[in-house]
Amino acid sequence: MERILIVEDELPMRTALSDLLASEGYRVLTAADGEAGLKRAIAEKPDLLLLDIMMPKLDGLSLCAELRRLAIATPILMLTAKGQVEDRVNGLDAGADDYLIKPFSSEELLARVRALLRRNRRKGLVRDKLTLGAVGIDFVHQTATRGRTSVHLTVKEFAMLRLMAEAAGEPVSRERFLDVVWGYTAFPTTRTVDNHIASLRAKLEENPDEPAWIKTVHGLGYKLDYQFAKA
Model confidence over 85-132: pLDDT tens digits? Predict the structure, then answer.
């Protein structure tokens, strides 16, 4: 039973969220302010955190940033009435994984919860090492080798590979690459993603023009073909 921590200062909203998630079979934990939410998140280590922004004692952005500073990677879905672009950017830059604006439908909330939990489960399936044909990738030591020869990959190229591995064969959109690898404050373009993919193919593929591992999914993005790649 996956555990979801709700940090929300408004009792009616907290109760409604608790009832909805419990009815779907999740174990629900709650906190009524940011400080209590931070303590519960550290102590309980939930599988997902639903986080309001405007709260007493410690606001949601600060709570989120503190969890990331402590290297706590619990997925965070921010729930807020603040819907301006800069508000969403601030939430994502603080370390949130997704952002939902109030009022929202129960169906959309549950869909986003399922997506974040599914993504988190996939992370647990990704091993520290990946083999792509003759190339070995070590995510822990950030090294890549072809036989005894070192293959130089940049930090962002490693991050892109890891993101595709975590997707377990599903396509990763260019926007998702930009969000996770570059962050919204860098203002890169989708062309930046294409250029880095081309660089990865040149370094890892035997024939970059006909890639066996890093496949283009037209209209969606790129995926790591797990038919060939073995973790």
Answer: 777 777 777 888 888 888 889 999 999 899 888 877 766 555 678 888
106's tokens = 């129960």
Q: How far apart are CA 179 and CA 53, in angstroms?
A: 20
| Alpha-carbon distances, residue 58 vs 18, 31, 39, 53, 79 (angstroms) | 21, 12, 11, 9, 15
What average pLDDT does range 138-152 have in this prediction? 88
| Cα 120 from chain centre | 8
Is this prediction's pTM over 0.90? no
Please choose, from the candidates 198, 152, 208, 173, the residue with its C-alpha nearest in 3D space to the C-alpha of residue 181: 173
The DSSP element (H or E) to which 59 belongs, if any, is none
Average pLDDT over residues 199-204: 96
Please tell me the distance from the alpha carbon of residue 156 to that of residue 89, in angstroms, as a whole number: 21
Distance (Å, rounded) from C-alpha 160 to C-alpha 39?
32
Contact call for residues 47 and 22 (beta carbons, < 8 A)? no
Rounded Cα distance, 34 and 214, in Å: 42
